[in-house]
Please model this.
Amino acid sequence: MCIFCKIIAKEIPSNMVAENESFYAFHDINPKAPVHVLIIPKAHYDSFNDVPGEVMGKMSTFMQEVAKAVGIDESGYRIISNIGEDGAQEVKHLHFHLLGGAHLRWGHFADADSKDFF
Ligand code: AMP
Model:
């Protein structure tokens, strides 16, 4: 069982933000912003590559509710999903990072120099 499946099964403790029958939201253990919540489906998908559109539609509604619940829907926020090796995905269970609570910088994401892109 993967670490996030264990969190859903309450085998590993987590700091819950919200839950319904299909999705779970909890605070990231290593926050990168004043608000850093992870949002996951209870069903296991390795990454965004594998999630069916119907599930993603319901997950979007849940993410909107979570942004409102933590009070950043009006101030603004960022949603990120890391996918695979180049995406620097560490946990192989689909998750979205919900980041906010401060003005987020937008910048240079790649280790490679931008002149190498083209
Ligand atoms: P990613 O690099 O997109 O796979 O992100 C995985 C995230 O999971 C990281 O931001 C970690 O800090 C977070 N994380 C790992 N284990 C736990 C845990 N037990 N509770 C809360 N967050 C976790």
The pocket of adenosine monophosphate is lined by residues 3, 12, 14, 28-30, 38, 82, 88-91 (CB under 6 Å). The chain has a mean pLDDT of 94. The two ends are 40 Å apart (CA to CA). The first strand starts at residue 16 and ends at 19.
